[in-house]
Amino acid sequence: MGLGLTITTFMFLFTYLPQLAVLVFTSGPVAAVTTILLVLSESSTLTMVLSKALLIEDALIDTFDGTLVARGETALVEKERQVKGSSAGDSISRLGKLVSKPFQKFTPSAVIRYFMYLPLNFIPVVGTVIFVLLQGKKFGPNAHSRYFQLKNMSKLQKEKHVEERRGAYTGFGVSGVVLEMVPIAGILFAFTNTCAAALWAADMEQAAGSSPELRDQAKKAA
Prior knowledge:
Elements: H1 2-27, H2 31-54, H3 57-70, H4 74-77, E1 81-83, E2 95-98, H5 109-117, H6 126-142, H7 145-150, H8 155-164, H9 166-180, H10 186-207, H11 212-221
Antiparallel strand pairs: 1-2
């Protein structure tokens, strides 16, 4: 909350008037309102980038792994961390020590890319749609960075996997971007997006028939 408020205050102090001056020519009389929404969107995005990198990274990893464990993909998670206890326990509490962390530490690339696309918002409606699509195209595959690590995919394998599902990843990414752009609530949506990404990964594993835990359960039921 404190980080978000600080970033929002900074953005309104230093970016509102310059952007308003530009939007006056593209949005006309509604420029003041449009600029407020744009600055809030920018502030929310920056807050999310910094929060994910500096504050909630470990919690997001636990959410992803815990969701996979809850869906019976314990063997997959155990490739990169310890999983304790029986299947009857809470999936998050069963998670042990990480072998390695999947998410990249903070780099300026995400912020630089965001500001490179930002001028698109000065084009009414169409520009904003293109902006969200471009962000979503990157967001979708990034949401499965943990899954790619657990599967030990090479760069070429990841690219092929994503390309075969380009539409699905872009659709997922666009919805994720829109949700995380919501001021304040964006951090909550970061967790729901992570959970959704893990559920999708579990569906992929089960569709491929690669879940030993589920196969064992099916044998017992038979």
